[in-house]
Design goal:
four-stranded antiparallel sheet; six-stranded mixed sheet; Arc Repressor Mutant, subunit A; alpha/beta; Rossmann fold
Length: 256
């Protein structure tokens, strides 16, 4: 069934702000102009670059490509009066997108609220809402992210017998340096940061290879195999990179 999600317009002309390159890119997914009007207000439009896409029950190829090529910092998704099937769109978005996902709803349902977070939402607001509250919650998410990034830059990532130093791009197994390519380092870093969770091929292609997974390509599988071999030869025994059939990959700590 063809999707009705399509790129509609940029709600903020690029010439409005000369500092457009420093703006956060927000993708608004909605059927009406409720969200668009909030970001066209004088106090809000200068802070963010916004693009609007229409809602559908499925993700179109256009939307998938847009997420990979434009890499917005946040998606604000107005699900309206969504039913349980439509809510699964949140899960599909999360498989492709690792930025902030903010849900806006017209349905006053505690179960929907819980389901949205379970499926991958970072925040949730009920309509009608105060536009200032929306903007403050968006800013709060970005502020926490900024603080977290600063902390990660100074820290090492350690799990079992693996230690990564993101700032110097060095990998250690039991204290010995293991030479990894930039892609292998970033792949292992993603697995460590999401230890115990399945990372889909869609997600890894989008975040690491910057393209949409076509369901056939084997590039990721080959590189994952090469990474496994290097880690095994280096003596990694306390962690295991598991292939989850039909879903993706997951790093497990065997000593936990």
């Amino acid at each position: 069934m063809p999707s009705s999600i399509e790129l509609v317009k940029n709600t903020q002309p690029l010439e409005i702000n000369q500092n457009i390159q420093s703006q956060k890119k927000l993708l608004l997914i909605e059927n009406d102009s409720y969200l668009s009007k909030v970001f066209l207000m004088d106090d809000n439009h200068a802070s963010y670059q916004t693009t609007k896409i229409r809602t559908s029950e499925t993700l179109s190829q256009e939307l998938r490509s847009y997420l990979v090529e434009n890499r917005p910092h946040m998606i604000i998704f107005d699900i309206g009066l969504a039913d349980s099937e439509q809510l699964l769109t949140i899960r599909d978005l999360r498989a492709l997108f690792d930025g902030f996902l903010f849900i806006v709803s017209s349905k006053n349902s505690e179960q929907e609220h819980v389901d949205a977070f379970t499926l991958g939402a970072d925040d949730y607001l009920l309509k009608p809402m105060n536009s200032r509250i929306l903007m403050m919650r968006i800013e709060a998410l970005f502020h926490r992210q900024s603080n977290k990034v600063k902390q990660v830059e100074l820290a090492s990532l350690t799990l079992g017998d693996v230690c990564l130093q993101p700032k110097s791009q060095k990998c250690f197994i039991n204290g010995a340096v293991v030479k990894l390519t930039t892609f292998e380092f970033n792949l292992l870093k993603s697995l460590l940061e999401h230890q115990g969770k399945i990372l889909s091929r869609d997600h890894l292609y989008s975040t690491l290879l910057k393209r949409v997974y076509n369901g056939v390509e084997r590039t990721l599988d080959v590189r994952m195999s090469q990474l496994r071999e290097k880690l095994t030869l280096a003596g990694m025994k306390k962690n295991q990179i598991e292939t989850v059939w039909g879903q993706g990959y997951m790093l497990n700590n065997l000593t936990g």
